[in-house]
Design a protein that fits this description.
single chain, alpha+beta, 7 strands
Amino acid sequence: MYRVLLSILICAFILLGCVHNQILLPNGKVIKVELAKTEEETERGLMFRQYLVENEGMLFVFPKDDIRLFWMKNTLIDLDMVFIDSTGEITSIAKEVPHSYIGAPEEEIAQIAGFGKYVLEINAGLADKYNLKAGDRLILKIK
């Protein structure tokens, strides 16, 4: 009985872990995402982070599809930025967005715009590595 209960709990844990805060890519790869939903989380984003694990990223969640403008102030790592609409379709990708440094003058800080309800920030080069392109549909498993 103990083994059956333990097996059920392990399966439930695995399934719950697979359901929330992940993005399934067309090639079957999974990106684990940290969510930025609040204004404060969105403003901070990946500021001051010195690294990002390869298959992890940050997903910015907005109320509806719209033009999104990102300012990369104090973002210390190069990124790919994937703009995703409310249906999960990639609308555009900004590749190899350059990092900034703490105290960088405003005119040296990258500004990136795109359209969508979601914006996924991942390590620079991953969009090409996983062959992501506009028109691809992603499955967002977020809570």
